[in-house]
Amino acid sequence: MYLTIIFNLVLAVSAFSSGDRAHLDVRDNDKDCPIFVYTSWRDLILHGDCRSSVQLTSSSGQTAEIRCNVEEGRKVFRFPPGIFEIDEQLLIPASCSIVGAASPNDMANPKKTPDWKGYQGVDTIRPDDNGALCGGGAFETKGCAENDCKVSQVNTGGSDGEGSMHVVIENVRINDFFFAEDQKKIGFPIPGNYDCKTDHWTEECCFCKPNGVRSTQVAVWVPESRNAEGTVDILIKHLVATSAQADGINLHGNIKGALVHDVYIENTGDDTLALWGAESFPEQITFANAVAVNPGIMRPNWYGNCVATYGLRSVIFANITCEAPTLEQPIPQPGGGEVNIDTSMFVFYTSFGGSYPSGNSIYIKGWNFKNLQGTGYTVQEGSLNTFKPGKMVWTKAENGILAPFYLPDKKQEVNVIACEGLKDEC
């Protein structure tokens, strides 16, 4: 049983970049689940065709229907049990919702795999052209196809490139279809994959070989947009992702108002929860009741922390759990630079264009920081202000509280207020 709901949005659903098919699996306890090819249902969603019902025939001859009703001004498409293949970015019209059969996730036990499998990507590598996270999300909002809108005029899903407004992504499960088969490959060393001495990755092999774990690049990707208003009012809740080749959730560019809460994400190839404002200064952003497990493991020892920011105006992190290992031999940046994996629970970067304007604010309200065996990290066992292999960094916040965060570059003023509880004011 499971449910996929997307309210009031224009959203691009991107399957992958490898050319194979991904699945949007909305099964309900049906062992002989019908498979519906993409072309049989694509136009219905793409054109917002809201007839009372549309008959479908599966590849094996089974029949089902997608029902559509107008509810409170929205076109609500209700999908039957089945596997719905998708092999391109699908741009969902504004004021449309996609609803599956029932909720897939028990947020009290997010590791529990239901009988169905959810949204499944099939990438087994993070390609070189995606090194800075250009697309590849299971769910994407409208915006630019490149990380920087000035690079090209191409937009996500053939959209206008303007930011989405009033988007809800709720009760989705991502990359669980093949997880039982592929989980033994997670973190497994691949010979010849660790020539990461320079940034000339076309000349050397720095994770150029597939890890064999079938996933999407990202669970949710909000790209930079072309309009001055940016992306407005994003809600992501009750999301579970068992793996990702790149980030778990990445909010990029000019965003005004985003709430991510009650999510569980493990086994990423980059940061688990990322806010990448660059010079666009996102504000009124909140991450709450989120669990991040084993960041960066899809590219072992290379890059990724539970929470990372790259420029912002204001953000709140409330009741975040981070489970991450300490590493004795992490891979430094080319040329012997900083280590960028498992350095602390929260890392506030100025790289990738990250800028923090005057008056910026970061609130950390409550945290649970532990290793993969469940033992909590302490200030006494960590390092202060500076990373040391085998230790997690702790830093004194503006209000004098020592908290598990790290400022690799002290050239910009990043204002961090921390409190161990969830008080309104730290």
From TrEMBL:
Q: Does the keyword Protein biosynthesis apply?
A: no
The answer, when asked if Cell inner membrane is one of the entry's keywords, is no
Gene3D superfamilies in the cross-refs: Single-stranded right-handed beta-helix, Pectin lyase-like
Database matches in InterPro entries: Pectin_lyas_fold, Pectin_lyase_fold/virulence
Domain of life according to the entry: Eukaryota
Alphabetical keyword list: Signal
The residues forming the signal peptide are: 1-15
- In its UniProt entry, what is this protein called? Peroxisomal membrane proteinX16
To which species is this protein native?
Answer: Durusdinium trenchii
Upper classification of the source organism reads: Eukaryota, Sar, Alveolata, Dinophyceae, Suessiales
